[in-house]
């Protein structure tokens, strides 16, 4: 049986695990011994190590035919040193992985002023967070070309699920931008991103990037309104962009400053992905049980 190594075994990887176990013996890197029982309960063989400590990664050499890389970059800088450590550890094995799928972010495109964006658009990251992702993509693609490893990249936008909704933000009364100044935002349900990762391991050719987004074409404030209505919360107050600079934290404001509409044609056509939640309307409706009659 083929062996798969998961790097960054969080929510997305755990959702993918049941689909992967039919084809693979699944291993996962974890830096927390407390997570070992959880991984084993999902049928995953844990390997202890830390991407920030290159010396702790020796057990990864030669262990896997394929790799699913879901780990985020470090929180600082413009380089992804974690991916550099991973590549170095994998390179020490007598055999290299045959393919690697990396979950990146659509933030690599930067602000596109609401335009439709496909995978041929050159990255133009505008935050250090996105610059680190571009660096990871570059490292992996160069390594793949140099060593004959098939590398595919999934560029995911805002990941949501029943447990990943902006409820705290709405409850805190965080405002949204007025419609005429608001940014287009993109989404993917965690379950569909997990299915996309499995499909990429099966079908993606080398060097290919995919926008792992659903069919939603909403502005951010409209998304907040949708969640608020479903959960019986007040809709956020709408404010101007000038006021937002004074009232909204830099992390959320950075997302409000980037507007784009992602094309997902490639992931549907090449990876044969049929979305379980085609838009956020279906995903948010599924986040609560139906009302009692």
Secondary-structure map:
Elements: E1 2-7, H1 11-20, E2 24-30, H2 36-41, E3 45-48, E4 66-69, H3 81-91, E5 99-105, E6 116-117, H4 128-147, E7 150-156, E8 158-160, H5 167-171, E9 176-177, E10 184-185, E11 187-189, H6 190-203, E12 208-211, E13 218-219, H7 220-230, E14 238-239, H8 241-247, H9 250-256, E15 261-262, H10 265-270, H11 280-285
Parallel strand pairs: 1-2, 1-4, 2-3, 4-5, 5-7, 6-15, 7-12, 8-11, 9-14
Antiparallel strand pairs: 10-13
Structure overview:
With 293 residues, the protein is of the alpha/beta class. The chain has a domain at 2-160 and 187-214 and 263-276: NAD(P)-binding Rossmann-like Domain (Rossmann fold, 3-Layer(aba) Sandwich). It is 35% helix and 19% strand. It has a seven-stranded parallel beta sheet, with helices on both faces. The chain has a two-stranded parallel ribbon with strand order 6-15. Strand 4 (66-69), helix 3 (81-91) and strand 5 form a beta-alpha-beta unit. Helix 1 packs across helix 6 and helix 3 packs parallel to helix 4 (128-147). It is globular and about 60 Å long. 43% of the residues are buried. The mean pLDDT is 95.
Keywords:
single chain; 293 residues; alpha/beta; Rossmann fold; seven-stranded parallel β-sheet; two-stranded parallel sheet; 15 strands; 35% helix
